[in-house]
Amino acid sequence: MFMKKGLLFLVALLIPTSILLAQTTLTHDQRMQWWREARFGMFIHWGDYAQLAGNYKGQQVGRGGEWIMNRAKIPVLEYQQYAKQFNPVKYDADAWVKTARDAGMKYIVITAKHHDGFAMFKSNASKWNIVDATPYGKDVLAPLAAACKKYGIKLGFYYSQAQDWNNPGGAAARKIATEGWPNPDSAKIDAYTMANTGHWDPLQTSATMSEYIDKVAVPQVKELLTNYGDVAVLWWDTPTNMTDEYAQKLQTVLALQPNIITNDRLKRPNFPGDYKTPEQKIPTQAELDGRDWETCMTMNGTWGYKSYDHKWKTTETLIRNLVDIASKNGNYLLNVGPDALGQFPEGSLTALKGIGQWMKVNGESIYGTQGSPLPALDWGRCTQKKNGDKTTLYLHVFNWPADGQLHVPGVKGKVNSARLLANGKNVPTTANGEELVIQLPATTPDATDAVIAVSL
What is the pLDDT of residues 367-417, one digit of tens each? Predict the structure, then answer.
């Protein structure tokens, strides 16, 4: 018996790693299953730019807070000085993930490195990271990964693979200074920027992009996919100046996490990833092409923290966005921009709490659903679940009918039951050809979105 066990152990050692990986690698649909069922995730834009909070030299800088280095054309060495003040002592990864879970979110994607090149993790590829460049001196991704595991939340990393304004050789978008900030030297800066492929500081071009890819981007992606356990998503952004050669080097690293899924921003069109990423908008039905997709959106007007941006979307708007997206087979990645201390803004917390309350009652109409099989509905949206020859339609009523009769076009099959998720009460139905008429109470139980589950 001992010899048999020893022989089996030796055989196992001789099996190539590639074969073992192949045995655990999932098909595309299997990899995408959790993501398609999740429907709702949290985007987190956080970096040392939160220290500036959208302000530079006493003035508010336009556009997203995370783009402040580019918009104000802050020199590299000057920008790096702000990291010496970045000390997020109130960061609580457990509280962050619990907030996401309580809001009904199933996954988190955090900016491991945004375009300013600042890594929110310990990196041996660049000293420009939160451990080596700040008084905080700690990796923030490790506790986030632990909290995600604790609460059953999938973890994803955003990584700016091409644009990098601090590590030499990284790309820079051609954005002139006057777009975001009235810099007195803007004319001079603009001329330099346009002549140097978007860069505004000679330090940025002191290496080639090929050197940047080999010495920073590829090693850092390896670190992200090696040091934090299971990584569910790699969210690339953006393909500025990327080549197929550069993209392939990064794509190859994904083998470290065989079941990871990626978006479509590595390098178009030859590296389409697993899903499309419309930004700040919800596509119309006509714009969809059958591919998996995810809308990423801010709660106010910025991704990264800005102290003066208080234009918060209402909880009603955010819930209805989620429903609209789910009704079209998409996912909603809703952003939070923590401040320099590591706190979620109060406006974000208020909205997330409201969404969570709605999801506790109506989550079954979102999770694991498919898009609407019905024609356009003037009173709301529809999601559905199929189980064999049985279907449940979830009718999301935004506009409650004044006469108490909800007309649902395109319904085929016998209705077994119809009930309001808000209070569990059954509502009577009448079939009229291929139209279903539901008799509703005089007032809605939920003015944001009252959901009726119709079992066919």
Answer: 999 999 999 999 999 999 999 989 999 999 999 999 999 999 999 889 999
CATH of the domain at 196: 3.20.20.80
Write the pLDDT tens digit of every residue in 218-262.
Answer: 999 999 999 999 999 999 999 999 999 999 999 999 999 999 999
Looking at residue 101, its amino acid is R
Q: Residue 86: inside a domain, yes or no?
A: yes
Quick check: helix, strand or coil at residue 320?
A: helix
> Residue 371 domain-assigned?
no
Residue 328 has pLDDT above 70, yes or no: yes
Judge if 278 and 386 occupy the same domain: no
| Residues 351, 392 within the same domain | no
Tell me how far apart the alpha carbons of residues 20 and 402 are, in angstroms, rounded to a whole number: 62
What is the residue range of 448's domain?
380-455
Which residues, in sequence order, are CB contacts of 356 under 8 Å at separation 6+? 102, 103, 104
First to last CA, the chain: 58
Q: Are residues 401 and 346 in the same domain?
A: no
- How far apart CA 306 and CA 316 sit, in angstroms, is 23
